[in-house]
Known about the structure:
It is a single chain. The protein is built from three helices and eight strands. It is an alpha+beta fold. Strands 1, 2, 3, 4, 5, 6, 7 and 8 form an eight-stranded antiparallel β-sheet that branches.
Amino acid sequence: MQNEAFSILIKRTNKIQYKQMTEFVSEIKTIAHSSDNIYRMLSDLSNLERLKGLIPEDKISDMTYDCDSCTVTVNPVGKQTFRIVDREENKTIKLTAETSPIPVFLWIQLLEADPGETKMKLTIRAELNPFMKAMAEKPLREGVEKLATIVASIPYDK
């Protein structure tokens, strides 16, 4: 009886800890730079200064950033802070949204296909209930593609 109760507790705990995340994955983009150059640029969020001309001001404004975090005002969502939570050199940068009302994660994945040519993919994972998923699915799907296009067009050689 005691083992059965413990098993139920573990099942309940696992359900709480491992809720279903909805995943939005960009198309794979090819960037004509080494994964080292791309990683060096993207893993330090203070380099976002270079992106100011690439980001539509009607969608994103009031950017502040340091090496590990970035705060932006996203229309119509509001102020959001993203923080780097994991870096795997020349391969992966993982961020989380700190001020979001729902858990949101962003992964930037890099793979150097040939010298000076890197494949890049963005993944957004968000914990969305069915109602929120219906409202947010299209903007998140479009957003991950737009963000991937912006990341692919950054001048990494400057």
